[in-house]
Amino acid sequence: MTDQMGTEDGDERTSHVVTAFLRHRGDVLLLHRSDAVGTYAGRWGGVSGFAEGNPDEQVRVEIREETGLEPGDGVSFVRAGRPVEFEDPALGREWVVHPYLFDTDSRAVDPSEEHDALEWVAPTEMLDLDPDDGLETRFNADRETVPELWTAYERVAPTVRSIAADDEHGAALLSIRALEVLRDRAGLLVAERAEFGPDPAGEWDELTGLVDRLLEARPSMAVLRNRVNRAMADAVAAEDEDSVAGAPAVLESTLSNVDRALAADDDAAATASERAAGTVMTLSRSGTVLEALRGGEPSRVFVAESRPAREGIDVAEELAAADEVDCPVTVHTDAAAAHLLSREDVDRVLVGADTIRADGAVVNKTGTRMLALAGSREGIPVSVVAATDKLSTREEVPLECGGRSAVYDGDALFDVANPTFDVTPADCVDEVVTERGALETDAVGDVVEELRALEEWSDG
User: Fold this and answer.
1) For the chain, what is the radius of gyration of the CA atoms?
2) Which of 28, 123, 191, 250 gets the highest tally of CB atoms within 10 A of its CB?
3) The Nudix hydrolase domain covers which part of the protein (predicted)?
4) Catalytic amino acids?
């Protein structure tokens, strides 16, 4: 039990606490505080407790004690935020809240006696949202939270900057993060209506400005652009012809589009799992490929380490630890891929995609082109797994580059090339596996036209 009075530097009126937001598939865990706690009983909060020592260590203790989840075992640290300081006059106490964000693979939570209920909800459920603003009944207008819970969440929530700087995760996951950024801002604008009144035109201008920044954050990722465009197009379609889509329409649309995007990625992985049999070779970190391997029946998996960030190592570790994958996992250098394909009995090359061009060429982590070319040379089928939202409406796709120091951090004067993505020709790819099944070449153009129609929301 850690819900007790705490002090810092001898000030008996100041209490330092940690609050962890556990995130799973776009939702966060809220816990209802029971009568067993000393403060704010009957209110909703995150995983929290008094910081009796180092907050970075204490927050992991609280997660373990209050949820039964083990940090490091399916629970991964994302970021810590600046402390939130406020005073509660009713308690005569000053609080310093240290916020944290963790991602978890599971919603199977075993709450301690400090809580008598739990829910996984969109973070905007922390806000005081009025159903009269046109919101669906999913919002609980009676949910009373601990003070400054939303402020603490904002300190660790995804941002345009965090999306632009993320070099660990694939395009599909970052597209979800982009929708979360748009969702959170729309939710806050809805909540602010109680104080400032509705201003649909002003809300729309602010949200479209945010969309512009999101689209500029990762210009090479078609899936991010397509999914944000779909959310805005759906918001426009939900309003009357003569009215401006305001924050409530965007909030509803982003919530439904997060669900839609996650389902599309799941369905693409399920389709691809049928190909994940025998000996499979992959590279980099694709969440869709990882789920396909978990859902398939591979007898062996080769994983290229994917220099310089070596995200392939993380994939290999997850596969080795996964209960669903009961087969040998071999990690190798990127340069050894062609050699291993020529000597090992590999049945399929299975890779993800950041973007698929209209001509069928695949933009993905550097090394994909070499792997596909080698697979084609050896007569090994090359399958690309991607939701249809990864098809690009643009003829040219900008290719991102990494920093010089990731390859060479010495003082010698020579150029360093660190391309993050390469382009695999369409004739080196046997199939593109999507939530709609394996796309035929002539079907790619039809999907591209669907996605181009989503961009018309900005013409209004």
Assistant:
1) 24
2) 250
3) 13-142
4) 354
Residue where one domain finishes, among candidates 104, 136, 156: 156
Burial of 76 (0-12, 13-18, 19+ CB in 10 A): middle
Are 306 and 434 in a shared domain? Answer: yes
Percentage with pLDDT > 90 across the chain: 75
CB atoms within 10 A of CB 406: 14
**Cα(28)–Cα(198) distance, rounded to whole angstroms?**
27
Q: What is the Cα–Cα distance from 460 to 458, expressed in whole angstroms?
A: 5
CATH number for 422: 3.40.50.10470
Question: Looking at the 3D structure of the chain, how many domains does it have?
Answer: 2
Amino acid at 305: E
Which is it for strands 84-88 and 348-351: parallel, antiparallel or unpaired?
Answer: unpaired
- The CA distance from 265 to 287, in Å, is 9
Residues 148 and 285 occupy one common structural domain:
no
Domain termination residue (choose one: 140, 156, 172): 156
Structural domain boundaries enclosing 58: 1-156
Q: Is residue 180 part of a domain?
A: no
Which whole-number Å values give the CA distances from 168 to 72, 136, 151, 213, in the listed order?
17, 35, 27, 20
420 within some domain: yes
pLDDT one-digit tens code per residue, 272-318: 999 999 999 999 988 899 999 999 999 999 999 998 889 899 899 98
* Cis-peptide, bond into residue 298, ω within 30° of zero: no
CA angle 141, 147, 153 (to 5 degrees): 85
pTM above 0.70, yes or no: yes
- How many residues comprise the chain? 460
> DSSP letter string over 28-89?
EEEEEE-TTSSSSTT-EE-EEEE-SS-HHHHHHHHHHHHH---BTTTEEEEEE---EEEEET
CATH code assigned at 118:
3.90.79.10
- Report the C-alpha gap between 431 and 419 in whole angstroms: 25
List the structure tokens of 126: 């922390």
Query: Tokens for 318?
Result: 């997850």
Residues whose CB falls within 8 Å of the CB of residue 435, separated by 6 or more in sequence, listed in order? 263, 264, 265, 266, 267, 268, 271, 387, 388
Packed helices 171-196 and 200-217: angle between N→C axes, nearest 10 degrees: 160
- 3-state helix/strand/coil string of 237-264: HHCCCCCCCCHHHHHHHHHHHHHHHHHH
Let me know if residue 203 belongs to a domain. no
Bridge-based pairing state of the strands 93-104 and 14-24: parallel
Provide the pLDDT for residue 8. 39
- Flag whether 357 is in a domain: yes
